[in-house]
Amino acid sequence: MADPTAASTVDPHGGHPADPSKRDMLELMATAGAAILGAAIVWPLVSSMNPAKDVLALSSVEVDLTPIQAGQGIVVSWQGKPIFVRHRTPEEIKSAKDVKPSELGDPQTDAARVKAGHDQWLVLVGICTHLGCIPLGNKPADVRGEFGGYFCPCHGSQYDTSGRIRKGPAPTNLAVPPYAFESDSKIKIG
User: Fold this and answer.
1) In terms of pTM, does the model score above 0.90?
2) For the chain, how many structural domains are there in total?
């Protein structure tokens, strides 16, 4: 009588005993091939989601502060947004510091909106928080509203010399972008 375990090792197509090590090797090769093929398909897809070089170039902007006189401001572009960089006068700084946060619709101190030791420089995203308009106030001849900061003529939002909302429909202060001083005369935004 034949051994029942021996029947499981016989190849049904040729009658030769099957080699379990060959079957394991074939499974291993098929699995490795599928993994390599999957990686070859997924890699370009994931790589295409990385930002393009022109986008990475706009991820940060350096601004030379030397030509900006007290009372003046400039507009630079960062990530497609206007950024207001303003050299505040001592009067504008005092005006911003004298406001009690409890009097504000979006309470924030002036110190929280500028870098320590550089409070003469105000850096803001120049987009009104009401409907996305660009407020006036960076040019000396611009209307700046009752609070001497920025004025959005579209719906009448008024910001103070720290970019905080003081009057009008805007719900929040002008945003402060991420920035750092690289030296006393240069900042890097982003």
Assistant:
1) no
2) 2
The DSSP bridge pattern shows strands 81-87 and 121-125 to be antiparallel
Q: What is the pLDDT of residue 11?
A: 56
Residue with tokens 């611009």: 142
Known catalytic residues are 155
How far apart are alpha carbons 21 and 27 in whole angstroms? 10
Together in a domain, 72 and 26: no
More confident position, 8 or 82: 82
Residues 126 and 164 in one domain: yes
What's the rounded Cα separation, in Å, for the pair 111 and 24? 69
**Where does the pLDDT of residue 3 fall: very low under 50, low under 70, confident under 90, or very high at 90 and above?**
low
